[in-house]
Amino acid sequence: MSATEDRLTLGLAATTAMLMIAHQVAAKTARDSLFLTHFDVTWLPPLTIAAAVASGAAVLLMAGLLSRLGPARIIPIMYGASGVLFAFEWLVMLWAPAAMTIVLFLHMILLAPAVVTEDLLLAGAGVLSALILILILILILILNRGYVAQLASNLRSGAQRSADIKATDATTLHTIAVTRTAIDRDALLQEIKELRPSADGAALPQPTSQPQPPVPVASDPIVQATIDLRSGDPQRITAVLSNSVLSPILLPHLIPLLADQATMRGALRVITPMASQASGQLVDSLLDRRRHPLIRRRLPILLGRTDNAIAVQGLCECLVDDDQDVARRCAQALHRIRRNYPHLRAPDGTVQDALRQTLLGMAPQGSEEERTTKRRHIFDLLGVIYHPDVLDLCFDALEGSDPGSRGTALEYLDNLLPDERCCFGSVCTIHFTPFGGV
User: Fold this and answer.
1) For residues 68 and 59, what is the distance between their CA atoms, to the nearest angstrom?
2) Residue 274 gets which letter from DSSP?
3) 332 contacts 362 by C-beta, under 8 angstroms
4) pTM reported for the whole predicted model
5) Radius of gyration of the chain from Cα atoms?
């Protein structure tokens, strides 16, 4: 055989191997999508482990057959068997989708790797083979990115809005109420505290109106505003907060007002315009563990509306705070900044460490509202690293009851999170399987 024929044979073998690997990637995509649509995610780990053991045995068996009978006799049989199986699965899928999904799953794990292994052996060695393998890797990366982008597009096009959902079951109604309704827990707890009777059973005494002494007026308006903000008199504080614009000099006296439900909303309103300019002071207060817990829980609301790296750094410092409410609200703020200002990126390593600690500390105990809050926290952290809008859609799909949307969301996460897949899979097993039968 001449050198030209050798190169032609090698090129055909390498091209066949490349096409078979591309076919393997596409088939794997279809396999995973079908599996996650028709079966619960808890079936995936044991089935994958069993199939992996069988796949190893199949490869060893194929190597022995190739050495004894030669590729000229074995490869046509393998290709024919694989093609017949694909045709059978395609024809029967309409009548028995669940059964054919299992058949396809086993087919892709047992038979397809052996076929690709044969092609790679035929492709041989040398510079041409190395170049072909590089092209194969590039093709796989392109296909994977395109597939992930298509999954994200599917999630966007199939996103359910609360105004359009016709929920009839209690689970869906509860999920929508919890995930789409903003509940001010701090206000609720303070109201309960105010309405709770005293230790001896008597109602708490109501404040009586007493004549107030005349308030001295300072010549400097900043000094007068400072005196009023620190007076403890709700009327004087409200009068200052009613001004549309306040000087940033007053910020140290405005921050303590975040701890009082009566002045919190007014304080948030006047601090918001100066939040970006005063991010350093807000971050210092957030990191100060001596501050009132309510202040530290409400500061991320302001920092999440800023557009600078100082706020991002400060919020990252509190992602693993001892106060879980502070940690969750910092993740929400970073999630919001990532959506509004994509150029402001939190360090992936810091967020991944917080994500791993959160996942390892997760447990199925607690009320449904608490478990939903923890699940939301995971997706807020993921949104800081990846695409926040798509992660929000994934969360809505996983919390919903539509099998198709949930399957698409799981497949998207499976391709997006290669490093956290095992840990995330365990969280899905514990927390997402009760929602919507599949």
Assistant:
1) 14
2) G
3) no
4) 0.60
5) 30
